[in-house]
Amino acid sequence: MNLNSTEPVKSTLIQLVLDCMESQDAINKVIDLDWVKKKRDWELAITVEMAEFCEHVSFKWWKKQSPDWSQAFIELTDIYHFLLSRVIESEIPATYLAKAVERHQTSPIQNQDVRIAKTHVYAKEIIHKSTGKDSLNAQQCEEIMGLLIALAEFCGRTTDEFFQFFLSKLQLNIFRQRHGYKDGTYIKIWDGREDNEVMHDLIQANPELGLNANMLYSALEAAYPEAARA
After folding, report:
1. Which end of the chain, N or C, is less packed with Cβ atoms under 10 Å?
2. What is the C-alpha separation between 197 and 39, in angstroms, rounded?
3. Which residues contact 211 (CB under 8 A, 6 or more apart)?
4. Looking at residue 137, what DSSP letter applies?
């Protein structure tokens, strides 16, 4: 997972994206074994998640708001799930996403107002690309991937952290499916907080959880509301 390895960056990134695609395909098959044939509207899903992202980055100028960068970052990894699904379904080579990660790394922006303004611009770019009449093509997927990496950095996260949290979120998705997400019996709010936030805080408190899928799953099991397991 370390992008600073001695292996050439491009090949490292390609393998990383391939690993993400394999993991995404696996969780999609848990939900629907024949998911590729169903031709889901991944673009609409990306657009909806992007709107949720905007809720956390102070776009409502008509009311008092403060950005919640941690929650915004979580939404970005959700968008990546849907982007990967489009890439897999359309048989777009992993090299497109890998190139985007390699090319679109940015420098941190210290000024909060500037960071918020650029975040809004990039968010609109993703929404614009996702709301066309056709499915996203390879070039558009590459561009969105680059924008996601830039937005993650605006949220104060590194590229490594983006991919690590994505893989962690896959464990949460598996946990959800095994606890009734599809049939509607899963409890998403854990003691007043969304499960995404609980997982994020678990990893922040113990970073090793983000590197060990089994440990993370066990931690989620332990944190799941007692009433839901009764």
Report:
1. C
2. 30
3. 1, 164
4. -
Q: Please tell me the distance from the alpha carbon of residue 8 to that of residue 151, in angstroms, as a whole number.
A: 25
Whether 58 is covered by a domain: the verdict is yes
The verdict on residue 3 lying in a domain is: no
Looking up residue 28, the CATH number of its domain turns out to be: 1.10.4010.10
Q: How far apart are CA 145 and CA 162, in angstroms?
A: 11
Residue 36 to residue 45: CA distance in whole angstroms = 15
- pTM of the entire predicted model: 0.86
Q: Tens digit of pLDDT for each residue in 90-131?
A: 999 999 999 999 887 666 777 888 999 999 999 999 999 999
Each residue's pLDDT tens digit, 176-195: 999 999 889 999 999 888 89
Any domain includes 143: yes
Q: Is the pLDDT of residue 5 over 70?
A: no
